[in-house]
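tool_call: predict_structure(chain=1)
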Amino acid sequence: MSARALLLAEGPCKLWQGGVCGNGYGLTRRPGERKMLGAHRRAWELARGAIPPGTDVLHRCDNPLCVNVNHLFLGTDKDNAADRDRKGRAAVGERNGNARLTVDRVREIRHLLSFGKSQSFVARLFGVCANTIRHIAIGRNWKHLDSGTSEARP
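tool_result:
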């Protein structure tokens, strides 16, 4: 079976067996070139042709090592972000590595604010800046708690 036929075969993920970069994506080169590129991008090129400039190759399967082109599709950065959000993979709330609050603490903050406690008082109470509390109060931060995501459920 040719490489192109193998890449176009239906079925489960076909995992890249070569080098991997720090973000978990396979790395390869085009013949005769020194520049590295994503193995999933190279798989697309081999099976489907050139990738338009400014276009990403996205995974339906969310497996960065997958090079099965039936699991891949073309899109923009905006499409990639929408796909991430739709699948609930965004680093929001406690999954954000910079988060200093938890879901329970944000609910407690909202409760205190609903009873008229000042934002500056609540900020001091929770050891965060007043802007953090203001952003929670106006729905800029932690808005996913009201959107029905898994983290929003009790």
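agent: The domain at 3-86 is CATH 3.90.75 (Homing Intron 3 (I-Ppo) Encoded Endonuclease; Chain A). Proceeding to next step.
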